[in-house]
Amino acid sequence: MERLRQRYEDAKRALKTLEEVINEPYSLVVRDATIQRFEYTFEAVWKFLREYLGNKEGIICNSPKSCFREAFSLGFLKEEEAAEFLEMTDRRNETAHTYKEEVAQLIYSKTKGYFFLMQNLVNKLVDKM
Predict the structure, then answer these.
(1) Number of Cβ atoms within 10 Å of the Cβ of 98
(2) What does the alpha-carbon distance between residue 107 and residue 111 come to, in Å, rounded to a whole number?
(3) In angstroms, rounded to a whole number, what is the distance separating the alpha carbons of residues 76 and 91?
(4) How far is CA 2 from the centre of its chain?
(5) 63-80 mean pLDDT
(6) Which residues lie below 8 Å from residue 129, measured CB to CB, with a gap of 6+?
(7) Is the entire prediction scored with pTM above 0.70?
(8) Rounded-to-integer distance, Cα 34 and Cα 106, Å
(9) 10 falls in which pLDDT band (50, 70, 90)?
(10) Dihedral Cα 129, 7, 123, 57, nearest 10 deg
(11) What count of other Cβ atoms lies within 10 Å of the Cβ of residue 55?
């Protein structure tokens, strides 16, 4: 249970830092900072989900996509939200290629929506803890 609480705190802190930057006026530096914060926020959120599923539901999942599918099957996510999380996972995997302008712009343009999606999932799970 302590590990679950720590994963929650990590996700909450990461979401806060992402929220701060998504409200900044656009510049290349802000774009790049947003992508970096999206990257580590995504990691914190899916690891919190993994820990929650293991501790509270007895479900073992070892990848982001498998965890999001399990969250959908348990009713924590609607079908369209689950699809967005699967897309978000692909975008997270593309963050290593943000030296390509079109990849960086695509990820940046979706980050605000991803933030709200991740925040909603964390809030649903913490209410069940």
Answers:
(1) 19
(2) 6
(3) 22
(4) 21
(5) 97
(6) 4, 5, 8, 52, 56
(7) yes
(8) 12
(9) very high
(10) -40
(11) 15
> Looking at domain 2-128, does it have CATH number 3.40.470.10?
no
**Tokens representing 38?**
């999206």
Read off the pLDDT of each residue in 122-127 and give the average, rounded to a whole number.
94
What CA–CA distance (Å, rounded) separates 95 from 40?
Answer: 11
pLDDT digits (tens, 9 = 90+) for 23-67: 999 999 999 999 999 999 999 999 999 999 999 999 999 999 999
Residue with tokens 């343009």: 109
Sort residue 120 into left (φ over 0), alpha (ψ -120 to 50) or beta: alpha
> Which pLDDT belongs to residue 58?
96
